[in-house]
Amino acid sequence: MAEKVYLVGAGPGDPELLTCKAWRVLQSADVVLHDDLVPEELLRVLPPTAQAVNVGKRCRAKGISQAEINALMVQLAREGKIVARLKSGDPLLFGRAGEEMEALRQAGIDFEVIPGVTAALGAAAAAQISLTDRRHASRVVFVTAHREGGTGLKNERHVAADTTYVIYMPGNRYAALAAELQAAGIGAEIPCVVISHATTKDETIFHTTVGQLPDCPAAVSPSLLVVGIVAGVPANAPSLDNNSSSELDEELLQLALQHPYHDLHGRGGVE
């Protein structure tokens, strides 16, 4: 059998959100190297013949290094085993897949990437948030609160009013994130939502604003933070094309128009 490793997206947590192709690959795998954040419910879909190995790396916790994971994938593939590297969400989004693909290329090991539903989309669906609601947002930015050299927010400046931010791995650094968001030009009154364990039985959703974010109760990992006008739009909000706009719609419109960079960018927060 040809040496091959599958980098598989596990999705946001609900086993039913695993793609058909991901499920098929997992059913044929000899060894599944999975992230620590892959829930137990999802691991139950593995066949009894598959060896499940937790290679997760949690913040501030000792565990297997990335170099060791890379070496293990290569070793198992060369032993003729079908290897599935099961990564939460989508493998190519904040999942170190770039480092793993590079290691496999250097070792001459063939590999295939199986996409998965990323956490941002699972969380947005759970909270009923349209990340690019055309009435309020024309762009969405995925950023991680944990990266080499600091948070990805520190380089954000002159944020347009019609931007939705999805912040992966916020931890409980709410005060620091609120300060960084406001330093980037996002007002204290802008709505935001903290979503923990999206799409699972342990899911929690907490609505707040950027200014009140430091008072948010600690969320259990994995969690993410959605920031933007769309985070404050209720599921039953009428379209702004209608004459009978709700009081909240009017308030959101005014917030967008008052954004400090609205005129600078020549575009409004609401169409």
Description:
The chain is an alpha/beta fold and 271 residues long. The chain folds into two domains: 4-117, Cobalt-precorrin-4 Transmethylase, domain 1 (3-Layer(aba) Sandwich), CATH 3.40.1010; 120-265, Methyltransferase, Cobalt-precorrin-4 Transmethylase, Domain 2 (2-Layer Sandwich), CATH 3.30.950.10. It is built from eight helices and ten strands. The longest helix has 13 residues, at 66-78. It is elongated and about 55 Å long.
Number of domains: 2
| Secondary structure: helix percent | 25-40%
The average pLDDT value, as a whole number, equals 84
Strand content: 15-25%
Low-confidence stretches: 236-249, 256-271
Quick overview:
The protein is α/β, with parallel strands linked by helices and 271 residues long.
What labels describe this entry?
271 residues, alpha/beta, Cobalt-precorrin-4 Transmethylase, domain 1, Methyltransferase, Cobalt-precorrin-4 Transmethylase, Domain 2, 2 domains, 5-stranded parallel beta sheet, 10 strands, 26% helix, 20% strand, elongated
Write the layout of secondary structure elements.
Blueprint lengths: L3 E6 L10 H9 L2 E4 L5 H4 L7 E4 L11 H13 L4 E5 L9 H11 L2 E5 L4 H8 L12 E6 L18 E6 L5 H10 L7 E6 L7 E6 L13 E5 L19 H11 L4 H4 L6
Parallel strand pairs: 1-4, 1-5, 2-3, 2-4, 6-7
Antiparallel strand pairs: 7-10, 8-9, 8-10
Helix pairs in contact: 3-4
